[in-house]
Amino acid sequence: MPPPPSSAPPTPASPTKPPPYPRQIAAIVLNHPSSTLTAASARSLSASLLAAAPDLTIPTPVANAVLKLLWHHAPRALLFFHALLRLPERSRELSPCTLDLALDLAARLRHPRQLTSSVLALFPRHGLAFTPRTFPILFERFAVSHRRPDLAVRLFLSLHRSHGVAQDLPLFNSLLDALVKSRHAGKAASLVRALEQRFPPDAVTYNTLADGWCRVKDTSRALDILRQMVESGIAPTKATYNIILKGFFRSGQLQHAWDFFLQMKKRGCHDDNCKPDVVSYTTVLHGLGVAGQLDKARKVFDDMSKEGCMPSTATYNALIQVTCKKGNVVDALAVFDDMIRKGYVPNVVTYTVLIRGLCHAGKIDQAMKLLDRMKGDGCVPYVQTHNVLVRYSFEEGEIEKALDLFERMSKGEECLPNQDTYNIIISAMFVRKRAEDMAVAARMVVEMVDRGYLPRKFMFNRVLNGLMLTGNQELSRDLLRMQEKYTRLRREIRL
Fold this sequence. Notes:
By secondary structure, this protein is mainly alpha-helical. 66% of the residues lie in helices and 0% in strands. The chain has 27 helices and no strands. Helix 20 (348-360) packs parallel to helix 22 (383-395). The termini are far apart. The model is unreliable at 1-17 (pLDDT under 50). One of its GO terms (cellular component) is mitochondrion. InterPro entries: Mito_RNA_Proc_CCM1, PPR_rpt, TPR-like_helical_dom_sf. GO terms for molecular function: mRNA binding. Residues 1-21 are annotated as: Disordered.
């Protein structure tokens, strides 16, 4: 017979500390004594993370979430990344996508070459393969953020020597994409001509070049690309036609855009690639609305469903945006209610566009309530959402409300402030031109530099002049020392 069950109560399991969530980890990083990236500070942060949870495990999704939460404080985000490398292997998981995020952060800082090289070296060291995003990140950062398209081109041409990466066509197309985004369409076109024997253009190549010319409002050259594409035996794709369509609206050629759209509808009966899709309708709706033709834009929106093309959330976003632009926020709210009633889920763009419309109409309290509703619906606001509220609060004279929102952002209670946030606050401090406001502006300059941003020269000198005129010698000396350290901040003092 089995022994009788024991009457003694089971021994309770020893309580285990739950692992920190991404926001808790981000708070630990933000509160760490140092944001300077050194081996000692990375080891110290690693020890702090383990002290918070001895059984800590940081899988890839958590690591990536923490990096994104710290995105606008690049030095601390990279400090977390290097602390992650120093955790015991059982406590962390290192993946190529995490390295891509670290690479993107490193490329944004003031001395990117050394930082990015050290991150790139981690791929082979940990036996990880480069992803399709690895080198496009660098192309985009050097060509767009640092305005050095020559560096992006040189990097591409040296990849096969330094990293054993094949110079294949998709990688070449990603370089072209970075160049056209930085408004270097001519350089991209020259590169295609120079290397067309090694990299015969495909549909993506031609689409990228067409988009580049459209971005600089040269639709005639974009149409030339379309002709070259056909002559080379490559059929234009739906994306090709949508790029040209958007280009006409960008350049203000409304009649050309409308005629091109009608031609797409006509030819779409025989060629599915030419038939307008939801992107086409959204482009037309937005273009007409921005041009002030809201009634015509609304008719396009009403007609698209009848023509077998259902609107998307992006379509509703475009309609809300142009309705707000026309100054009719009540109608925009009606569109918002209609999209929810029809089962569409608003995204961060939907809420941000509507919040901007409410603020522009002077309904800041209603905009703040919509922000709370947004969070309650599980849609996480991004920094631009907060920037809208900060900007309009200042414009309405609600200075304390704006600074309170900024403080919550700065502490990580909301999303962290970015360079635009600091520029908004610094500009607002010159409205009253009081000594204490100049001190706040100076604190913003110091803080933004600490977070990896450099202020524009004009903005920096304006703050410095303001401090000197209001007699704040101590802060003036701090900014002068900063000016000596960063040569980009040229001294232009006007008394």
